[in-house]
Amino acid sequence: HALFEVAALRGLTVGGLGRLLDDVRHSDAGGVLPSAWSCAHGHGRWTGDCGCSTDGSPDSHQRWREPLRRCLVSLARHARDVFERRGSEVFHDAYAARDAYGDVLADPDRWDAFLADHVHPLASVDEARLLLASQEATLASFTSCAWFFADLLRPEIGIVLREAARSVAL
Fold it and tell me: Has residue 61 got a pLDDT over 90?
């Protein structure tokens, strides 16, 4: 009532964020340095033994982070190379398709519209699905919660490793 009746009577405009941002001046902020939402050491949270964690004993460490991260980055490079090479034959724009695929994950009923917008007419739908699933798994293998704790036996590390294995399998 307040938004749709009273506001209009008082001459107020209400609505979505997009409309409010239309009048905001946009500017290029430049690059964003690597950072971590949960650590004062910035990117160190994801790559090294920075010492920040919410678990573990006083003698625990995160020296495992660097070799795990290197392996995941190597896997991601390979997955990217395959996606670019094979995706160029399947998608109009492979990365635009990958980014738009999030809408399909949120609402599988959008699959047909996604195919019409992003997949070459004669391309294999199965290959498109496989390539997108591979990218989904590769991106999920970098889930931030896995880098938050010290204990390697926590389920978050298992999630990252399962997603990495899924990426390799795909």
Answer: no
